[in-house]
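If your schedule permits, I should be very grateful for your opinion on a structural question. Thank you for your consideration; the sequence and its tokens are set out here:

===
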Amino acid sequence: MATTNKDVKEVFRRIETKYILKPAEFKNLLGAIAPFIKKDRYFEATNCSVYYDTDERYLAIHSMEAPLYKEKIRVRSYNVPKSLNDSIFIEIKKKYNGIGSKRRIVTTLKDFYHYEKTGELETENPQIKAELDHCFKFYHLKPALYVAYDRLSFCGKNEDDFRLTFDHDVRSREYDLKLEQGDAGEKYFKNEEVVMEVKVLNAYPLWFSRALSSLKIYPASFSKYGRIYKNKLERSL
């Protein structure tokens, strides 16, 4: 049976910009913008993802080259699934010329494993399923890397399209590549850095631009999957 949730958004399009913050920068920025933000509906969660790739890790390597267009495919849960009947997301993330888009299907872990084996998946969005089918078949995708982090999510009090997330304790593993097998992994950052993602449709609010400027916080190119893979590759040489 198809898993549906009318409150779940399946298609996103926005500009996403990342920043790498030291713990003190995170604390100072959060203090500066506190009057202008509020907790998001899903404020606190551990985001768990399994990224899919080719045997040669083409998607990871392509991402590291900072191309005009890139895409990645993953399955994601918010917190560790407790059973195969828990809901998860199958996602396609694309980025073209700085504009990011995400298309996803909500299903159960059990139904996703059935899809992996058979290609069969009941859904109310056949267009997204067709895109997933193409990616899995074209790239011959297999589980490649598990990534988890503890996320805090905020949005603007007066800006509906402004979303701000802070990811702590980014960790990964190349074994046990299943969402239900816990969120343990090797830490990526050694000094407790925080990954901030700013997601907007238009320009930053003035109060946020001023806070970044006063604290001298600047964007950083950072793809969790690509950067973690690059780090593991460099250490193996």
User: Anything to note?
Assistant: Strands lie at 11-21, 37-53, 69-78, 87-96, 99-108, 142-156, 163-173, 186-187, 194-200. The CA atoms of residues 135 and 141 lie 7 Å apart. The first strand starts at residue 11 and ends at 21. DSSP finds six helices and nine strands in the chain.
